[in-house]
């Protein structure tokens, strides 16, 4: 999973860990290229975050071993998704209230102003402009 290289370190500074965890909790999902020498970049609340990919992969490996997230790999990119246990852990780590949830778990707000188009004369309820039997 993570290859060792003389220039790579797996010791993650607290600021990097806090930034990655805060972004991960806010979005509910995190992706990172499988390039240990590369940089992971994100924007959270107008603040630009840049952390070495090896550190992000190491943090996610730790969370995965605790069963706090789901990992998916496709096209040389890792995708991590928080589960319910992970949300509880992040709330505790980041000192957040119980009512704060990640963006992926928020329910979309319904629009109350939705109105149907008035039905035209001669237009049937189904297939008013044609359909299966129209051309036969």
Automatic annotation (TrEMBL):
It holds the Pfam family S10_plectin. InterPro entries: Plectin_eS10_N, Ribosomal_eS10, WH-like_DNA-bd_sf. GO terms for molecular function: RNA binding; structural constituent of ribosome. Residues 106-136 are annotated as: Disordered. Residues 12-107 form the Plectin/eS10 N-terminal domain. Coiled coil: none annotated. Belongs to the eukaryotic ribosomal protein eS10 family. This is Plectin/eS10 N-terminal domain-containing protein. It comes from Heterosigma akashiwo (Chromophytic alga).
């Amino acid at each position: 999973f993570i290859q060792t290289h003389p220039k790579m370190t797996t010791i993650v500074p607290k600021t990097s860990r806090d930034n990655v965890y805060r972004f991960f909790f806010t979005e509910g999902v995190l992706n990172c290229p499988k390039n240990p020498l590369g940089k992971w970049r994100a924007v959270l609340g107008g603040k630009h975050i840049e952390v070495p990919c090896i550190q992000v992969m190491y943090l996610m490996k730790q969370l995965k071993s605790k069963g706090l997230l789901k990992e998916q790999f496709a096209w040389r990119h890792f995708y991590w998704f928080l589960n319910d246990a992970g949300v509880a852990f992040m709330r505790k780590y980041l000192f957040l209230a119980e009512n704060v949830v990640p963006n992926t778990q928020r329910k979309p707000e319904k629009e109350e102003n939705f109105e149907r188009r008035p039905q035209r004369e001669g237009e049937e309820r189904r297939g008013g402009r044609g359909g299966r039997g129209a051309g036969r």
